[in-house]
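Batch 3, record 17
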Amino acid sequence: MRWWVAVAWIEELIREAEKSVDEVEVFFVEGESVSADLKRKKVSLATTSRDCGLGIRTIHKGRIGSSSTNDPTTWRDCLKAAIASARLATPQEWDGLPGPKGTDFSPLTFDASMKIEPGVARALLDAMMEGASHHTAEVTSGSAALSSVDVTLANSHGVLMSDRHTSVSVSLEAIHEQSTGFEFDHSWSFDRIDPVNVGERATFFASESAGGKDLPTGDYAVLLSPLAYGELLGNVFVPALSGKNVHAGRSRLAHSLSEQVTGPGISMYDNPHLPGAESSARYDAEGSPTQRIDFIRDGILCAFAYDVRTASRYGKTSTASAVRGGYGGSPSIGHHNFMVDGTRDTVDDERVVYVNMVVGAHTANPMSGEFSVELSNAFWMEGGEFQTPIRSAMLSGNVFDLHHAVAGLSRETRNVGSMILPSVKLNKQHIIGK
Amino acid sequence: MPGISYYDIRQVTGEVTHIDIDNSVVESAGTSFFNKAILRVLAGTGWGVLQIDNYSPCTGRKFDELLKKAARLARITEEPVSLAEAPRGLRAGPSLREDPRDVSIEEKSTLLSEIEKSATRPEVVNRRAGYIERFEQVRFSDSSGNEISFETCRSGFNILAVASRNGSIQMGYEREHAINGFNLRHRQEKGKEAADIAVALLDATAAKGGKMQAVLDPELAGVFAHEAVGHASEGDLVQEGSSILKGKIGERIGNDTLTIVDDPGLHEFGFDPVDAEGVGVARTEIIRNGVINAFLHSRESLAAVGNGIPGHARAMPGEPPLVRMSNTFIGNGDSTKEEIFAECKNGIFLAGSRGGQVDPGRGIFQFNAEYGYLIQNGECTKMVRDVSLTGEILTTLHGIVLCGNDRKMSPGYCGKGGQSVPVSDGAPHILLNDAVVGGSGVD
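Prediction for the assembled complex:
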């Protein structure tokens, strides 16, 4: 995107908005993407897309309105809709949108060498297939996608910043007898993904999980992979750290500031400045300069996440935690690089039930934290080696409480979306066998 | 155009109006707009697909340029795609009882607020109500000269109540979505129901996991049908080899009382007047009297797999069609609810749904109830919370021994391949033997 072209109408939009509202914020994205899909071993579909989207937020006497469209030429209608929407909103305390801050706007998650081309997507699929050939399993489907997006954020306090992001992702599914395997990888940087390894891991899990044995019901030491742990953490624990949920009464952690909420060895923080990380950012989606947020330090709950809106309402300061899932109207509270940290150790020496993935984590109770999920690609593991596969079993527990039963965090970590997580070893978890 | 054997283009324009009320504060309310199109081309081997934001319908050279671009893209494909012939036809949707466009957003907000306020209780610490209304204008045309256009309206609301006492926190959640017009009037009881469940769950105990007899309410039994059978019957998964039902047409999977149907033509929340490939929709009996009978198909998967009915291709605006469920249900049997509880005698009654998930290749599924009760001597006794069920597609359905005569459909959304589409699931009350129940409770 040639952002200096975009600026002209965005500045006109801001001038127009200022005639009727106190403040306005404009979020504009424009991007292109290409993807290719496998059906079994062959490429069956190739897609390109050009997307754009405009989100407008207006604030007038504490009333916040928003609208969005993917046709920026109709920005006047979109602005009218945003202003109309504010009329209905309940007025709230409002500290004001951020003004311009800082001078360094160079992108942190942009790979200039990434080519958004069908041939590149095809080559990624070929690389995955090569990796997949190392184990006895049939590939059922797979996908490779590349994208590039330009983002402009502007507001009536003089913020006008653009950023660029690239993204590459690959995934593969495989089956052997009645056993399935799935693996994926994603990054902003082309060289940071390993498609051959993705192919190899997908067929490894399908092949290695075949012929599994059932497990009697009981309590077991469990090793959750970063994927399995991330699903439980992301569905339950992370939302409970949002200031919005805390003040609205939707967080079990609301009254636990300064209290011990996990085992003493555990820390959780957002590090937006981690070099090379997936979701690093200098500014959040409202233009506030990002900072490290220590949510949990050595087991003690220290902080919650805020954007300008929630911070204004409850007399707090924004932690620069505003994120946008797309261009749609308003930002929400999220994180950049969410990390779980603590003393690292070898976690797969002693006999343990290793769980690669879980089925049904989104059905966990987001308020109380209770869950029961089916295990996927579970194995007995000892001395760092996968041993007998486990056919089918359910893990039941509580996402909050299991953080008091942590017996160790692995040395290695893995990117799971915008979380960077170790494997987590847990003492005495309840498994319901067949 | 030379080299192009088929193309279709599907454009969806529309607007979405929403209202979000959180603890009596109108957080946001307003309207957003979209215009998305997708052009699919078959040229030689597989699909070349262009996703186009802000598409302006065009003809002649301009359109030919788009076709060429998609055809060039298709060059990297190698899987030859055939499309089965399929019937055309546009079903009429229900007429709108009251057009949401005739109701001001102020009135909608007032009505939603009444539902939200009715969830007030001393123990309820959070009430959150949402309204969503979506109008879509769909225009479809293909290289065979089919041209179809229609409009849909979907609207509905949800209400969440969160109750808290002594550090314990629980929730109740109710939702209603409709395709037949505005549905916010006189629904305050839904707020009350959400609050009642949230407060009651504070005193419920965690279910103890294990194998037991279970009675499922129509909503949860509907999700059971969706997860245990629906996904595995999707023709694209069968084609890829990632469904355990592959090659199983004609095999017995349950007893005679069990019939499971997907019907996009039904006037429920998953209704489609025509599918995303312009194919006329039809009722598909996936399981008929306990025997696997038919798969759900797109034109492509029907040509590749056979044994089923097309008209099940669905897509979000601007996204490629996938084989999807629409309105999925277990058909009525002849038992009454009372007979089902009496037959169960001792077990667990599970109600409401927090969703589910399936691995169709492995044949294993999981789904979660909102709440339940222990059944003792055919009567519901102690309330239990956080209960989920797992099962295996090929064996668990044999455990459905009784089907009630009180089928009811519930609206929801279903995700697949990054796309979320409106669906409904339903069933009568059912009795499930040897249900594998998960819960963290202990003796």
